[in-house]
Amino acid sequence: xxxxxxxxxxxxxxxxxxxxxxxxxxxxxxxxxxxxxxxxxxxxxxxxxxxxxxxxxxxxxxxxxxxxxxxxxxxxxxxxxxxxxxxxxxxxxxxxxxxxxxxxxxxxxxxxxxxxxxxxxxxxxxxxxxxxxxxxxxxxxxxxxxxxxxxxxxxxxxxxxxxxxxxxxxxxxxxxxxxxxxxxxxxxxxxxxxxxxxxxxxxxxxxxxxxxxxxxxxxxxxxxxxxxxxxxxxxxxxxxxxxxxxxxxxxxxxxxxxxxxxxxxxxxxxxxxxxxxxxxxxxxxxxxxxxxxxxxxxxxxxxxxxxxxxxxxxxxxxxxxxxxxxxxxxxxxxxxxxxxxxxxxxxxxxxxxxxxxxxxxxxxxxxxxxxxxxxxxxxxxxxxxxxxxxxxxxxxxxxxxxxxxxxxxxxxxxxxxxxxxxxxxxxxxxxxxxxxxxxxxxxxxxxxxxxxxxxxxxxxxxxxxxxxxxxxxxxxxxxxxxxxxxxxxxxxxxxxxxxxxxxxxxxxxxxxxxxxxxxxxxxxxxxxxxxxxxxxxxxxxxxxxxxxxxxxxxxxxxxxxxxxxxxxxxxxxxxxxxxxxxxxxxxxxxxxxxxxxxxxxxxxxxxxxxxxxxxxxxxxxxxxxxxxxxxxxxxxxxxxxxxxxxxxxxxxxxx
Length: 655
Known about the structure:
By secondary structure, the protein is α+β, with helices and mostly antiparallel strands. It folds into 4 domains: 2-116 and 447-532, no CATH class; 153-267 and 275-322, no CATH class; 334-413, no CATH class; 547-635, no CATH class. It has helices at 2-24, 72-82, 96-138, 148-151, 163-171, 184-198, 202-215, 241-260, 278-298, 306-326, 344-347, 351-375, 380-396, 430-455, 464-482, 486-489, 495-501, 513-523, 535-546, 549-556, 585-610, 613-625, 644-649; strands at 26-34, 45-50, 53-59, 65-71, 87-95, 153-154, 269-275, 328-332, 335-342, 405-410, 418-419, 526-532. The strands form 4 sheets. The chain has a 6-stranded antiparallel sheet with strand order 4-3-2-1-5-12, with helices on both faces. Helix 8 runs parallel beside helix 10.
């Protein structure tokens, strides 16, 4: 009896351990289908979630498709809230081995593609720079490139100089600016410390060294490198000619800053009305001292971008020094030159949402200051976040005046760029420049052709769905090839099982996001399937819970009486919501088509004032409304001015 009990006990333990082992070594991936809406991906969209990271392919203006990576909260807020798209999720059970293979493949593919597109961009900049140098030598119009000033610029230099300053001061022989008073004591102290560290002649020596480096620069020999023949390969890392030149010029200007000691440009900083407390003064003072020490080291650094780092930290030291002397916070402006601007008319109907954003940005700004004080220390990373929070808060406050604001475009490191100055250039002959340009253009054309073959967007054969399926298949193929022991490679997801529900679709249909998602649901055992509602539908549910359902349906069915939606200028004008009303969708669609036509007609009157925006939106409105006549819904309205912090912290941003 005892033996039988022992045998039963051991068998039970073995089964339990085996079950636990199977459970422990299994995971899941999520195939996501995003419903259509006006704007990008108006036919729907698909993505793959691996843990907290979501990968998806997006069609860009270049005509090429690119792999994007976003974290889960950012992706959901962008799509379910701002874009108002419901997300349908299918959880597919896979082995830990499958999950690791997929994660590594998508990560490496993302990084490889980033580097490939960066190289293409570097090649273009080199071409523009070479054309500019040739044109400077002989003024031949065939080498004139109108892109020059917009493609090549000096990051960080605009904090202290504009192009006119650089050109005129260079012609004067870089004389000291006699108008400098405000911040010269800080720069003079730094100059003295650098000379004590490296010698009295160091600054003059460094200036000549940087000048000689610029004159001796040679074009990058791209054509001698191995070309990109595989979409998954990392391209060679090459210091481009244009990047080397701009890095050296910025370094030269950093030394010029030490010699001339100019003040910050007026648009490079802003003075707040937020007091600096005694505790904050101690933390700021210690941080300023650390930044000064870092500048001493940077002045003799070999890193290519040392000049940009020097200018940023010098500007921040000046801002901090003024914070301490004035008793209120002073910050560097961190908005990029191409930031998105909102006119007063764009946000004047969204005052409640904008007030929420103002409150959120203030809370975040205050919390960052409190963290710095409680930890009794400031790091460059933390200060950068503090700087961004202050910029965001004080920019949003301009709504109160009211005046236009910059809504998007902040940078963790201030850019404040200027065009390239018309002075020191590499000492190359016209023949050398033309030869380098011909070689580069041949290489660039070949690389562009290869990348076009790999990434050229096509609605049917190469879109967000086909590329996602192709990448999953390639990841699984690599996993199977890498496993010599086939018994260990048997997982819950294999090429064969994946093809049954992914490749099982007709080649004429599998490019459609909705059908690909439906196929996965029908052809594979899923651990979980769920629909994550859009912002508008979540708000409707809350109203239904507290009010008469018929009244809510009538009031919220249209944009004229809705309390949940205010028209924003990114949407085309429409009257009825049709995403949750199938029966009356064709009838509502007629009114929406008429609204689009009306906006287009109005656009011909407003065209001189809005550059044809109403014509474009009206045409889009008609195209978005026509499918409603045949019971298909695309447009749902968008919510541009929602606050991420509000919904994340209130628990509305659920997954």
